[in-house]
Specification:
The structure is a homodimer. Chain A is of the alpha+beta class. Helix content of chain A is about 30%, strand content about 25%. In chain A, helix 9 packs across helix 10, helix 11 packs parallel to helix 14 and helix 17 packs across helix 18. The radius of gyration of chain A is 26 Å and the shape is globular. Chains A and B meet through strand 10, strand 11, strand 12, helix 4 and strand 15 of A and strand 10, strand 11, strand 12, helix 4 and strand 15 of B. Chains A, B: Its EC number is 3.2.1.113.
Chain lengths: ~750, ~750
C-alpha cells in the first residue's frame, strides 16, 4: 500500500509538473539530433510522411567539408560538422544508408553571377531547426535563408542585403547516382522540369523521374539556363569558348536538357528585401507538380505554411505524452518519434495519381499511397510503432504494399518511389503485414496479401524475384554459399536464409489466423531451418557449402563494421547468431540450454560484439527476457545502450537511422516495451525511462483508448524492475501480448 | 538569213531530241553530286524547302572514315568517301560550312543489342539516291534501308533477315556542337522528345530545341532507354557497374534526359520482314511534331510518301526545261537547281506555329515562314534565282525576313531556326530585299523593311547589333582594323566594310525607288567608301589602322584557303579586291583605267588567286563584261570554271555549296545570265551551256510568261559569243536588265 500511495503521489506530481510545462512535444524535437555520426538524418523542413522535404545541402564543392557526396559511402544531404552550403535540396531521404535524391538545389547568392557550386557555395551560421522549419545565414552572401514545406511543396524566404542577387536552381548535382534532367521556362517567374533519380544502392534499374515546378515571387531583371559543357576534343574543343565550362544561355528562353543543367534568376535587391521561392514536386508529371502547388499553397504566404507545418507535427507527436525524465530524455524521445514519422511518405499527388509499381503507368488512389519502404529495417519495429500509435497510417501502408503486389506481382522489399531496388534481402512484407493483422488491424485485403506471400514463399526457380535462392532454401532448408550473389557485398547466404525463417514464421502465424492449417505447419517447419547453420564448434551460425560442409577457415568476428564476410550481409556471425526471434528457446537448446545461451549473449555485450546500429542484432538486449531470473540483464543492457548511444546532440544516434528504425528502438525502449519478434503480436518489457507515458490510441482501432505506462522511481537512476502490474494486476511475465497491453490500459513499474 | 535558218533547224532538232527524251528533270538529279570535296551536300531524302530531311550519317564512330564529325572543321552528316554508317539523321543542313544539326539518328541493327555507335555502325553498299528517296544496304546487319520524307516528317522502311533486330534512336550524337535532350515513352510504339541544337559556328547563344516524335510500325518484343554514364570517381565509380559505359534502362518506361541518351526497340523478325519508322519534327513543341505527323501522313504508306516527294520535286524542277548539252551537263544543271531549292526551308508547323525570332514565344503564320538564311552567301545569287523562277517563294522569304524584324527589331544576318547566329558579316538583308523589290516583286511591307534597313544603316554605337562598327564606318567611311573583332577568325575590318558598301548601294537604289532622294544620296555616297582601302602600292584593297595608316607588312596573298589574314574574313586581299560590284567602273579608275583593271583581273585567274568557292570573288568572271571588247574573257573564264569545277560526280562542286550559292552560280552560268550586282536588277551575260533553256515563269508575277534562251553552237565546244539577240532584236550589251529579260521573252546566242 505504501508503494501504491507513493506512486499515486508521484503520478500527481508528474501530472502537475507536466501541467506546469508549457512546452508541446514539437518543442522537444531537435532536428539536429542524428545529423552526424553517420546517422544521416537531416535538419530540413518536412511534414509527417510528406513527399516534400527542404534540406540544407552541404556535402559538395569544398575541401572544407569532412564528408563529400562522392566520397566513401556518404548518403546524406547534410552533415552537421560540414561547413560549405550549396543550396536547399528538395525531396530527400532521412536516415538512409545509400546516397539518393538530394537534388533540385535552390541556392540564393549575392554579387556577380556564378553557377559553379565550387564558387557560389557559402559558409553559414545561426542555424535554427524546428519541425517543419529550418533557417540559416549565409556569411559569404549575407543572406538569411528560411524554409518550410507543405506535403508536396516548399516555400523558401530569402532576405538580402542591398545589391545584386541571384536565385539558382541546380538540377545537375545531387546525392543520387543518376544524372540528367531538363528545365523548361514557363514564364518570367516560373520554370518546370524533371530530374532522373535512382540507381539506389547501385541497383541500376531502380530509376524514376522527379518532376518539379519552381516559382519566384519577383520578376527577375534577367534569367537564363546554364549547363556545364562536356569536354570536346579537336577543332571543336579549341573553338568552343565554353568547352568544359559552365555555359550561360542568356538569351534563350525555351528548355534545356543534359547532365549538369540549371537556371538562374538575377535581381537588384534593396536592403532587407525578401524574395520567396516555391517548389512543388510530383512523381507523375510536371502538371501534377503544378496542381500540388495550386492546391497546397494558395498564393505565397511563408508564415501560414510554417504554422501549418508546426500544427501537423503537433498532431502527430501529440499521440504520446510523457512526464518525468530529463529535458534531454524528452528531446531524445520526441526527436525519435519525429524521425519515425518521416518515412514511408506519400507518393500520390493531390489528385490521387501516383506512379504504379514498376510501371510506366499511373494509378489513382483514394487513401494515401505510401512509398519508401525500407522493409529489411522497418519490419523489425517501425511498423509495429505505426500499428500501435498510428493505426490508420499503418493500414494505408499495408494497403499500399498490397496494391504494389496487384500492380506488379510482388510485394515490396525496398521500394523507392514506385521502383523495387532489391536492397538487402528477405521477404520482409510478410512479417509487416502478418504483425499488423495479428494485432487486429484488418481493414485491408488480407487474402490478396496472403496470395502474394504464398507465391514468394513457394514458387520455385528464377521466376521467384523475391527469394532468388528459393530452390535450395526449400530443398535443403538452408541457403548454401554461392547460391545467389547479388551485388558487391559478396555472398550473403546465411543472411538470406535467416530472413526467410523470420518471414516463414510470420507467415505460419498468419496462416494459422486464417485457418490455413496445412500452410501454417509447412511454414513453421521451414522457419526452423536456421538450425542447419548452427556450428557446435563455434557456438554461432556458420555458412555452409552446397554439399553441407562448413565454410573454413571461419572467424565469427569477421564482417564487423560493415566489412564483407562470406555468408553474412553487413555484419559478423555474432550480429546474426541470435537473430532467430521466433525460436529463442530452440536456439537456446541448440546452444546447450539457458545458461549457455545467457552467458553467450552476455559475452556478446561484454566483448563489444554487439553493434547497436545493425538491425539483425538490435533485439538482442530483449532476449534475456525469455529466461526467468535473467530479465535484469535486458534492463541493464537497454539502460546502458540508451545512455551510451542516444543523446540530445547531433551525435545522438549510433549509426544510420534507417528510416527511423534506430529511433523506433530508442522510442520503444524508453517506453518500456519492445516488439522483439516481428510477426508475433508480443512485446518484451523493460524499465521505462519516463515516469509516465500516455499513448493516446486511436479509438477507431483501439476502442479501449489510452494506455498509460507509469514508473515509480525511488532514485533517479533506478532502472531495474522490482515489480510490475498490468491493468492493475500484478505482472510477473516479461513478455506481454499486444491485446493484453491495449486492453489493460495501464502498465505500471516499480523500479529499483 | 542563213544563220537564222540554221538556228531554226537546230531549234527544231533540239525540240525533237527533247521530245524523244523521256527523262524528267527529277531523273537528272544526282544527289551524290557535292557529297565530297568539302561541298558538304548530302544524298538524303528531302522535299523542296522542307523542314525534314533524312540523311545517311557516316561521320562518326570509326577510324575507317576519312572525315569525322569532330575532326577539322567537318560540317556534313555524310561524306561520299567515308564507309561507316551509324544511322539516319533527321533535319540537316545542306552545303553549310559549320557543323550543325545532324542528330535524331535512327539506326536499324541485327544480332545482339548494342547501343554504342562504335559497335553498331556498319559498312554499306548499293546506295541509291533520287530526289526525296535514299536507300542503302548495311552489310554488317544485312538490312536494306530506304528513307523518304514529307515536309516535316519522314518514313523509313527497313527490310531484315530473320533473327533478332533493333531500331535505335540516338539523340546523344550529332553534328551540332550543342548537347543534351530528353526522350519520353508515349506507348509501346511511340516515343517523343527534344534535342538541343545550335552554337552554330561557335556562336554560343544561337541555340534552339528540335522536338520530335518517333513511331514504329510493329510492337517491339522489348524496348528501353540508354544513356552513356558520366564518369564517377571514388566509391561511386567503383560500385556503379555502368560507370562511364552505355547503360540500358531496361525496365523503365517514363523519360530520360541527359547528354548521351537514346531509345531502342527490339524485335524478332522473319525473313524479309519490313518494319517502318516514322519521325516527325517541330521547332515549337512535341505536340506540334505529332500534329505534323497526323497531317502529313495518314497511316503508314512508304510508297505514297515517296511518290509525293518525287512529284514535289517534279513541280519545282519543272520550272526550267533544257535541251542540248551533254547528259552530264543536264545532271549538273538539275542537281544544281535541286541544291538551290533546299534552303531556306519552312519553319512553321502544319498549324502555322513557329518560334518567333530570338524569342521564347511562338507566332502563327498564314504563308510559309522560312528559315536558314545564310544571307552573306545567298544574297549574291540564290535569292535572285528565287525571284526569277520562284517569285512566290521569294515573296514569302522576304515576308519572313520582315517578320523577323517585327519580332526582334533586326533583319536576319545568318538566321537559323529562329535564332540569329551572327555568322559572317554585313547587312545582307538589304541587297536581298532591295533586289527583289527592284525586280518587281512587291507584295510585302516594303516600308517596314526600309525602316529596318535605315535603322541598321544609321543608328550609332553598341545598340547597332547589325553593324557593330557603324560609328567608324560612318565617321571615317571605312572600318579601321581592330574596331570589332568578333570571333576566332581575327580582324575582319575590310570584309565588314565591303559588305556595308554593297548594302548601302542596294539601299540607295531602294531609297531611290521609294522616292527617298536624300537617303539615296547619302547611302550611295557611303557605298563608295571602299576607295579608302585602295592601296596604290599593292593595287589591292588593304586594311587600315584607325589613324589612317596602312597595315604593314602586308601580303595580298595572305588569307587564301581560309587561313586568317588581318582585315579579310576567310579570304585574301585578292578574293576581296574586286568585290565592289556596284562600282566596277570606279574601281577601274582607281586602278588606272580599263586596261589595268582587265589585266589585273586576268592575272587573278591566271595566277590561281581566284577561289571558285569563295563568295566575295564568285562574280569576278563576269566583271570583264563591263569593258567593251573584253567580254570574251568572261565567256572563257565561265566556260573554264564550269568545266573544271562542276562535274556530274560526287566531286562536282568546288567547295562548300553554301546553301546553294555555288550551285546557283553554276546554274545561272549554264543559262548564260548572272546577277553580278546584288541589289541592282541586272544580269551579266555569257555563253550558255545548253542549246535551249526555257524558264517557265510564274505568270502571276511575270505576265509575259516563259523566257527562252537559245544558243546556236556550230561546234560542240563553241563557247564564245559571236552574236546575240534579245526579244528578236540584236543585242550588243553584255549586261541586261531584269525587266528587259522578262519582257523580251527570248534571248538568243550565236556562238563561235
Amino acid at each position: 500500500m505504501h508503494k501504491r500511495l507513493s506512486l499515486f503521489v508521484l503520478c500527481l506530481l508528474g501530472g502537475l509538473s507536466a501541467a506546469a510545462d508549457s512546452k508541446s512535444p514539437v518543442d522537444y524535437v531537435d532536428p539536429f539530433i542524428g545529423t552526424t555520426n553517420f546517422s544521416v538524418c537531416h535538419p530540413g523542413a518536412v511534414r509527417p510522411h510528406a513527399m516534400m522535404s527542404v534540406v540544407p545541402f552541404n556535402v559538395m564543392g569544398s575541401d572544407l567539408n569532412r564528408y563529400d557526396k562522392d566520397g566513401r559511402w556518404w548518403s546524406a544531404p547534410y552533415e552537421f560538422t560540414n561547413r560549405y552550403f550549396t543550396g536547399f535540396a528538395h525531396v530527400t531521404l532521412s536516415g538512409v544508408g545509400c546516397p539518393e535524391m538530394g537534388t533540385l538545389l535552390v541556392m540564393p547568392t549575392s554579387g556577380p553571377l556564378s553557377v559553379d557550386h565550387r564558387n557560389y557555395g557559402s559558409a553559414y551560421q545561426d542555424e535554427l531547426a524546428t519541425p517543419g522549419y529550418y533557417a540559416n545565414y549565409l556569411t559569404k552572401h549575407n543572406i538569411r535563408c528560411e524554409v518550410t514545406a507543405t506535403d508536396r511543396t516548399s516555400i523558401e524566404r530569402f532576405t538580402f542585403k542591398k545589391g545584386e542577387a541571384h536565385l539558382l536552381m541546380n538540377i545537375g548535382d545531387g546525392l543520387t547516382n543518376e544524372t540528367g534532367g531538363y528545365i523548361r521556362r514557363v514564364s518570367s517567374t516560373e520554370i518546370e522540369g524533371s530530374r532522373l533519380c535512382g540507381t539506389f544502392c547501385y541497383n541500376a534499374q531502380a530509376v524514376f523521374p522527379l518532376y518539379f515546378v519552381m516559382r519566384v515571387s519577383k520578376v527577375p531583371r534577367e534569367a537564363g539556363f546554364w549547363k556545364k559543357q562536356p569536354l570536346m576534343t579537336g577543332v571543336e574543343g579549341q573553338w568552343d569558348a565554353d568547352n568544359g565550362k559552365y555555359k550561360l544561355y542568356k538569351n534563350y528562353g525555351r528548355e534545356l536538357a543534359g547532365n549538369e543543367v540549371g537556371y538562374y534568376f538575377t535581381y537588384n535587391v534593396d536592403e532587407a528585401e525578401q524574395i520567396e521561392v516555391q517548389v512543388a514536386v510530383s512523381f507523375v508529371s510536371v502538371d501534377n507538380a503544378r496542381r500540388n502547388l495550386a492546391h497546397e499553397q494558395q498564393g505565397c504566404d511563408f508564415e501560414k505554411v510554417r504554422q501549418e507545418a508546426r500544427r501537423a507535427w503537433e498532431k502527430t507527436l501529440g499521440v504520446v505524452s510523457v512526464e518525468g525524465g530529463t529535458e534531454a530524455q524528452r528531446k531524445i524521445f520526441y526527436t525519435a518519434l519525429y524521425h519515425t514519422q518521416i518515412h514511408p511518405g506519400i507518393l500520390q499527388d493531390v489528385n490521387g495519381e501516383y506512379p504504379k509499381m514498376q510501371s510506366a503507368d499511373n494509378g489513382t488512389t483514394q487513401g494515401n499511397r505510401y512509398t519508401v519502404f525500407s522493409l529489411w529495417d522497418t519490419y523489425r519495429n517501425l511498423h509495429q510503432l505505426e500499428t500501435l500509435l498510428y493505426p490508420e497510417r499503418q493500414t494505408d501502408m499495408v494497403r499500399s504494399m498490397i496494391d504494389m503486389y496487384k500492380e506488379w506481382g510482388w510485394m515490396p522489399k525496398w521500394e523507392l518511389f514506385g521502383r523495387e531496388t532489391w536492397t538487402m534481402e528477405g521477404d520482409p512484407a510478410i512479417p509487416v503485414i502478418a504483425d499488423t493483422y495479428l494485432k487486429g488491424l484488418r481493414d485491408f485485403d488480407i487474402e490478396t496479401a496472403y496470395a502474394a506471400f504464398h507465391k514468394s514463399a513457394t514458387i520455385p526457380g528464377d521466376s521467384n524475384l523475391m527469394r532468388p535462392d528459393i530452390d535450395e532454401y526449400i530443398q535443403k532448408g538452408y541457403v548454401p554459399m554461392g547460391t545467389y550473389v547479388q551485388d558487391n557485398s559478396g555472398d550473403n547466404s546465411v543472411s538470406h536464409a535467416l530472413e526467410y525463417y523470420v518471414a516463414d514464421h510470420a507467415l505460419a502465424n498468419l496462416a494459422e489466423a486464417l485457418s490455413k492449417k496445412q500452410d501454417a505447419k509447412l511454414f513453421r517447419q521451414r522457419s526452423l531451418g536456421y538450425k542447419h547453420y548452427y556450428s557446435k564448434d563455434y557456438g554461432t551460425l556458420r555458412p555452409r557449402h552446397t554439399d553441407g560442409s562448413w565454410l573454413s577457415p571461419f572467424n565469427p568476428e569477421d564482417g564487423a563494421d560493415f566489412s564483407n564476410a562470406p555468408g553474412f550481409h553487413e555484419g559478423s556471425a555474432w550480429n546474426y547468431t541470435f537473430c532467430v526471434p521466433h525460436d529463442i528457446m530452440g536456439l537456446a537448446r541448440l546452444m546447450g540450454g539457458k545458461r549457455a545461451f545467457v552467458d553467450k549473449l552476455q559475452m556478446v555485450f561484454d566483448k563489444g560484439l554487439y553493434d547497436p546500429a545493425n538491425e539483425p542484432d538490435i533485439a538482442y538486449p530483449y532476449l534475456f527476457n525469455y529466461f526467468k531470473g535473467e530479465e535484469w540483464r535486458t534492463q541493464e543492457q537497454v539502460y546502458r545502450l540508451l545512455h551510451k548511444y542516444y543523446k540530445a546532440t547531433p551525435y545522438g544516434i549510433p549509426g544510420n537511422d534507417d528510416c527511423g528504425t534506430m529511433s523506433a528502438w530508442a522510442l520503444f525502449s524508453m517506453m518500456g516495451i519492445y516488439p522483439d519478434c516481428p510477426g508475433s503480436p508480443w512485446y518484451s518489457v523493460t524499465a521505462p525511462t519516463f515516469d509516465k507515458v500516455t499513448l493516446h490510441l486511436d479509438k477507431r482501432y483501439y476502442p479501449d483508448g489510452d494506455i498509460v505506462i507509469t514508473a515509480q522511481r525511488p532514485t533517479p537512476d533506478a532502472h531495474l524492475i522490482a515489480q510490475m502490474s498490468l491493468g492493475g494486476k500484478p505482472l510477473s511475465r516479461y513478455r506481454i501480448s499486444h491485446q493484453e497491453l491495449t486492453k489493460s490500459k495501464t502498465l505500471h513499474f516499480l523500479l529499483k
